Every structure is written in C-alpha cells, then in structure tokens.
C-alpha cells in the first residue's frame, strides 16, 4: 500500500494525533518517496494475522452482513456480536447460519454471540463488570456494549489488534480496504498504545435522483468541530486536526483497549478522544500509567480510497447521535464555559430551554477482566455462542516451510 506520511502531528500530553493521511494506492510497487510510505503486502499480512474484526449487528439485512463477512481478509478473525431480533423472527438464527456456512466454505476463524444471551450477561457478572448489565443481568442494548463483548472475545483469541466494521455496508470491497487501512496504521505505529480511525473519502447520497458525493456527514462535522475547539481552548493554539470524531470504522491495539473507558452506544467513538484528552492529555490530574505516558498514544487518521455506502437509519437516529456525541464533549473535564455555551447553541433545537445535555453512561476499562475465563464461561454453556477455528493454517505453515 502507498500511503501519505502525516505532515503534522498534534501533541497533547501523551496523546499524539496525526493529521489525515490519504491512501494513494492500495497496491504499490516499492517506490519510496519522502512524502509517502510504501507498506509491502507481506507487512500488512503479518498484522492481519494478529487482528480480529468485530462486527456489531442489529437487525440488518442478511445480504449486507453476508457481504461484509466475506470481505474480511482470511488472515483476520471475525467476531460477530448481534443484537438482532429473536422474538417475531429469529434473525440471529439466520445470522448464525451465514456464519456457519462461511466457515464451512472458507475455514476462516469466526465467532458469534447474541448480545442478550443470559450466559453473556452472566460472564460479565462473574467478571465483576456489571456496568453494561440491565436489571435482569442481561447486556443492555447499544453498539458500544456489543463492541465491549467483542473486544473480550478478541482478547481471548490472543489478538494484539482489534478493529470494527459496521454490518450495513453495501460495498464489500470497501470493507476489505478498511481492514487493510487498519493494518497500514499499525505498520506505521511505534507505540503499543495506538488507534487507527478512518475518514471516508465520500459518503454518497441520492440528491434529485443522482448520486452526490458528499464529503462530510452532519454529525461528524459538528463532533469534529467541538473536539477541535476543546483541544484549541486547552492548548491556546487553534487546531483542526481531529477529522474522525465519529469514526465507527476504527481499530485499536489490545493494550490500548485495556486502558480505555468506553461510553455507551454511539457515543463510544467521540468519547475515545474525550477520554484520552481528559486522562492522558496535558492537563491530566495525575499520571495514571507510566508505561502509557512514556510510550505515548498514537492516533492515525486515514482517508479511505473507497466511498462509504451504507444503510440510512433516519433523522431521529442522526439527532440522537449528535446529542450523545456532543454530550461527551460537554461533560469533558476540559470543557470550559465558552465551549459549553457553543455546544448548547449547536444543540438548541434538540434540547428544551434551559435543559443541559445528559451525561452518557461510561464503562470503565476492561483490562482487568480475564478474557480466557470470560470466554470459557460461554463455551459449552451459551445457546448462542459459536466458535469456528481457522482450518487452513497448517497448510499455510507447511507452504511457508
Ligand atoms: N451488537 C449491536 N448492538 N450492534 C448494533 C447495535 C446494538 O445495540 N445498534 C446498532 N448496531 C450495529 C448496526 O447493525 C451496524 O452494523 C452498526 O452497529 C452501526 O449502526 P448504524 O445504526 O448503522 O449506525 P450509523 O451508520 O448511523 O453510524 C455508524 O457510523 C457512524 C460514523 O458516521 C456507527 O458506526 C457510529 O458509531 C459512527 O459514529
């Protein structure tokens, strides 16, 4: 892959945010240049073997899920965490059939579980991690809640890198690129605590019967603006470095996943920044982790080559996402009265007069959970858990020898 080298890196305490990098070519020929980095496919493949892709899914078309599953490179493991309907129609059964068939045909490692499985709730309860459980000890609804379950399963497979891909993508080829972009980010990283966040080149919409290649989504534009304002007001140097505030498509090292707190549902992605700024930024009250402070946390923002075409979920969903994204910023330790007033202005149509944005639920780090023990509680117990191991690895090792 040929990818631009970031021109600038913004440093805020232990957090290093690299400017947006464009993917110039998905395949490259080893041409080196001071402005671009050539990453041979073999290097990407080494990362793919250490990467699990978590796919959160809730009531998506099975055709879309099927395409996304088939697009994930073979060397990665796939983890599907579903919160799909099971009552009227058992959609999860269909999802499980797709997973099983995919494994039968490809031998790729693939795991699946349903978010509302009582055994999943029990495994969290036993781990002493009840922050995402409801009163019946079931995992709450929410994309973030599903992602946390996925991260623990990825850790139990011994993976060093964990990435996410939404299940409602119409273009399987773009999902394949996202995964390669994650691998490229980790190839460039020097810290064990790093994160790769994708910015889609275009998000096409139909306008007057024709495709319009939009660059920015409404929610992302606002989230980026206020995350940058948060940074600018604290460093006193204006910046526009954050361009991936809502990046659903992102990946992080398992070591970084261990030390992050996670905000609920769709506020998880903007909260990554808020958490890192609050806890590891230059105004952090104390140094919580010396290893993190000395290694630094690297954030790569990569602009994809492919556009993103996905299922639209409607105006209410967009408004909720905007509200929960900006709430994370409003409640940051670093948010002063000026930024608060700007956020309130932005949200005035969504809040009653005098109403403040509610604080999102935040779930503490998962690092102290024993992921193997957690997964053992599911194996052989849970009705919805499936685990298919990779079948073709021996042949590959033989070939390498
Ligand atoms: N397991 C699980 N549990 N998955 C869920 C849940 C849940 O409660 N709710 C939604 N999902 C799945 C969806 O099926 C989809 O695969 C993915 O999470 C994203 O949800 P969408 O409803 O499609 O979100 P979106 O497309 O509006 O927003 C996405 O992109 C944003 C950036 O533009 C999300 O990834 C956002 O988090 C992201 O900020």
Description:
- By secondary structure, this protein is of the alpha/beta class.
- The protein has one domain: Spore Coat Polysaccharide Biosynthesis Protein SpsA, Chain A (Alpha-Beta Complex), CATH 3.90.550.
- The protein has 14 helices and 17 strands.
- The strands form three sheets. Strands 1, 2, 3, 4, 5, 6, 7, 8, 9, 10, 13, 15 and 17 form a 13-stranded mixed β-sheet that branches.
- The mean pLDDT is 94.
- The site of guanosine-5'-diphosphate-alpha-D-mannose has 25 residues, from β6, β7 and α5.
- Guanosine-5'-diphosphate-alpha-D-mannose binds next to β6, β7 and α5.
CATH homologous superfamily classification: Spore Coat Polysaccharide Biosynthesis Protein SpsA, Chain A
Uncertain residue ranges: none
Named once each, the bound ligands are: guanosine-5'-diphosphate-alpha-D-mannose
Largest sheet: 13 strands, mixed
Helicity range: 25-40%
Please identify the top-level CATH class: Alpha Beta
Number of domains: 1
Give the overall form: globular
In terms of structural class, how would the helical and strand content be classed?
Answer: alpha/beta
**What's the architecture, going by CATH?**
Alpha-Beta Complex
Mean pLDDT reading: 94
Strand share of the residues? 15-25%
Straight-line distance between termini: 26 Å
Count of helix runs: 14
The Cα radius of gyration reads 21 Å
- Number of DSSP strands? 17
CATH topology, by name, is Spore Coat Polysaccharide Biosynthesis Protein SpsA, Chain A
Oligomer: single chain
């Amino acid at each position: 892959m040929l990818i631009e080298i970031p021109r600038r890196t913004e440093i805020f305490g232990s957090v290093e945010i690299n400017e947006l990098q464009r993917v110039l070519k998905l395949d490259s020929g080893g041409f080196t240049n001071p402005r671009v980095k050539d990453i041979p496919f073999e290097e990407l493949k080494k990362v793919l073997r250490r990467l699990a892709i978590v796919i959160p899914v809730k009531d998506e078309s099975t055709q879309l899920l099927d395409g996304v599953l088939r697009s994930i490179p073979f060397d990665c493991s796939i983890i599907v965490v579903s919160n799909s309907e099971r009552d009227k129609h058992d959609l999860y059964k269909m999802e499980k059939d797709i997973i099983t068939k995919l494994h039968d045909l490809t031998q790729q490692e693939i795991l699946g579980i349903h978010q509302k499985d009582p055994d999943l709730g029990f495994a969290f309860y036993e781990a002493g991690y009840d922050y995402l459980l409801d009163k019946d000890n079931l995992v709450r609804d929410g994309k973030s809640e599903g992602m946390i379950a996925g991260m623990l399963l990825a850790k139990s497979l011994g993976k060093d890198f964990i990435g996410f891909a939404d299940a409602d993508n119409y273009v399987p080829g773009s999902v394949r690129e996202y995964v390669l972009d994650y691998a490229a980010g980790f190839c460039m990283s020097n810290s064990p605590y790093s994160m790769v966040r994708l910015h889609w080149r275009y998000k096409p919409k139909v306008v007057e019967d024709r495709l319009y290649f939009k660059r920015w989504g409404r929610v992302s534009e606002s989230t980026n603006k206020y995350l940058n304002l948060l940074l600018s007001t604290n460093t006193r140097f204006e910046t526009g470095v954050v361009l991936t505030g809502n990046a659903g498509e992102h990946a992080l090292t398992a070591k970084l996943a261990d030390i992050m707190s996670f905000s609920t549902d769709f506020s998880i992605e903007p909260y990554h920044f808020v958490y890192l700024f609050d806890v590891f930024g230059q105004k952090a009250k104390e140094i919580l982790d010396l290893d993190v402070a000395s290694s630094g946390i690297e954030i790569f923002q990569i602009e994809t080559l492919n556009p993103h075409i996905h299922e639209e979920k409607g105006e209410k969903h967009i408004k909720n996402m905007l509200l929960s994204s900006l709430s994370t910023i409003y409640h940051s330790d670093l948010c002063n009265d000026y930024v608060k007033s700007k956020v309130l202005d932005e949200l005035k149509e969504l809040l009653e007069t005098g109403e403040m944005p509610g604080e999102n639920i935040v779930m503490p780090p998962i690092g102290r959970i024993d992921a193997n023990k957690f997964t053992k509680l599911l194996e052989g117990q849970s009705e919805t858990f499936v685990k298919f191991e990779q079948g073709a690895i021996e042949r590959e090792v033989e070939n390498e020898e």
